[in-house]
Amino acid sequence: MAKVLDLSLVLFVLCVSTAAIAMARNLGEESSDDTEFIKSSCETATYPELCFQSLSSYASEIKKRPLQLAETALAVSMARAKSAKTYISDMTDYKGITKRQHEAVLDCVEEMGDTVDRLSKSLKELKNLEEGESKEDFWFCLSNVRTWTSAALTDETTCLDGFGGKGMDGELKSLVKAHIVRVAQDTSNALALINVYASKH
Question: Could you list the residue ranges forming a coiled coil in this record (predicted)?
Answer without folding.
Answer: 109-136
